[in-house]
Amino acid sequence: MLTHLSLKDFVIVPQLSLEIEPGLTVLTGETGAGKSILIDALGLVLGDRADIGVIREGAKSTDISAIFEVSEKIHDYLKNEALVDDEADLIERTVIVRRTIDRSGRSRAWINGINVTAGQLRSLGERLLDIHGQHAHQSLLKLSGQLNLLDEYGAYREELNNVKETFTRWKTAASQLEQAKLNAQKLSEEAERLAWVYEELSAVAPKKDEWEELNNEHRRLANAHDILEELDIAAEELSQVDGSAIDILSKHASALESLATVDEHLGAIAAQLNESLAIAEDAVRELERYRDRTDLDESRFDEVDARVSLYFNTARKFHVLPEALYEKLEETEKKLKTLQEGSDLEALQHEERNAWQIYKTAATRLSQLRRHAARDLGQKVTEAMQSLSMKGGSFEVILKETDPSASGLEHCEFLVAGHTGVTPRPLTKVASGGELSRISLAIAVITSSATPVDTLIFDEVDSGISGAVADVVGKLLKTLSLTRQVLCVTHLPQVAAYGKSHLHISKSEENATTVSRVNALAETERVQELARMLGGEHVTEKALENARELIQIAQHYKN
């Protein structure tokens, strides 16, 4: 919902800071006062094409800002786009949008203080408000927007999502099949190459972590003779020959123990020698045990050596490290399996046909729901047109078959006949801006529960009508404002009387310059403005009385 709008040097507005209320806000003023200026400003701040013509005469640039209170859905969209601070997510969710345009044509834009593109502004703007009027772009003039509106009105979101999902699966299956057909020869050659690689590696049969174990065993066996020789020498010199290390340690330990009675400090040294003796004896026993378990097996060495050589030669052939042979085998097996499955054209064709049937069933169901929603929407809008100075007119929602897509098997188009005997034509080609606005109003009211935006703006929706029809338009706008924020530019007092808030736009000469001002009217001022709209420049007591009566009637309808 729009809560605040600020303008600086925009067209003929030098400065403006305006609070916008919930419900229905009407904008009135004399012809040429610039009633549509605010709507034009909103269009620019939300992504319309920049135009230096909107800069006030004599100013260097224009600056437009708008503040919106947004729903949780839009707030989540802003978070996903990194356009809001999570820490700022307090009780009220707000978004601040700002845009500047200078004389050189340079345009800059910000969302919550973050510099953005015009495309990002438009994307956000489509979620914040919809402008209905003869001078504005609006979703109803886009075929995609018409289809989206019909789908929202039909309330078959689950079926629509199912169509999108099944379409994606079908297109994926079709793409895989097509790719398999195009690359059949190439895939066959690749499969043959992988089969050869797999056969070669399988002959080696590398095992996980085998290379490290082979290296360790190869080094040990390669040095087995030296190891055994060193074991024999060590055992002999430590314990077996006269004057061995153990004999020497034992001899001197005993001698020092005898002398400890003379010098107690020698006892400590004797104890150290005894510890060394015990360690040496343990080492000798371990050497003997290791020697008993170790034997030079030349045949085993030849076997391991051959295995190591096989690893080296195979790794060199496939340009990998020896330790990577096991992973290479697994990877080749996986690729070969995938390729063989992928090249199974018959299986892919079956999968594609099955995916198509599932999609077609889902899309056909969606088409049935759309036809029902189209008839219902067409009837209701046609009924509403009868009371909007379009008696005898009709509204049709037609569905035309199109190529299968994520949206289904058809596209949608709105056709309108403004009067009896007139051939219905596409809404996008309706000549009368007033008719377009009133039809948009009827559709907006009827589909208000499905309209995704919170703010709707109607520019001159009462063009070409008066009297009782104007009262109907006022009631429709008031009804719509019960669930949405509505802003309406109007020149009819019957419509303006239904406003919860009333903004008056006036134009004057200040310092030889034309200036537009916007003022929120109090109750007495509203009576004066409605009287002016009823009777012209000279307000009579009768006009004032009629204005009060209009407000009372509107107030009674509100209650």
Structural key phrases:
559 residues; alpha/beta; six-stranded mixed sheet; 18 helices; six-stranded antiparallel sheet
Summarize it:
With 559 residues, this protein is an alpha/beta fold. The protein is 55% helix and 19% strand.
Kindly state the percentage of residues in helix: 40-55%
From the helix content, strand content and strand pairing, which structural class follows?
A: alpha/beta
Assign an overall shape.
elongated
| Helical stretch tally | 18
**From the alpha-carbon coordinates, what is the Rg to the nearest angstrom?**
44 Å
Mean pLDDT: 84
Q: Characterize the biggest β-sheet.
A: 6 strands, antiparallel
Alpha-carbon distance between the two ends:
23 Å
Poorly predicted spans: none
Give me the side-by-side strand order of the main sheet: 2-1-4-5-6-7
Task: Count all strands and give the number.
Answer: 15
**SS strand fraction:** 15-25%
Topology at a glance:
Elements: E1 2-10, E2 13-19, E3 24-29, H1 37-45, E4 61-69, H2 72-80, E5 94-102, E6 107-111, E7 114-116, H3 118-128, E8 129-133, H4 143-154, H5 157-182, H6 184-204, H7 210-222, H8 224-240, H9 245-259, H10 264-293, H11 298-317, H12 325-342, H13 345-386, E9 394-405, E10 408-417, E11 425-426, H14 433-446, E12 455-459, H15 467-480, E13 485-489, H16 493-496, E14 501-510, E15 513-520, H17 523-535, H18 541-558
Parallel strand pairs: 3-13, 3-14, 8-12, 12-13
Antiparallel strand pairs: 1-2, 1-4, 4-5, 5-6, 6-7, 9-10, 10-11, 14-15
Helix pairs in contact: 4-13, 5-13, 6-12, 7-11, 8-10, 9-10, 13-14, 14-15, 17-18
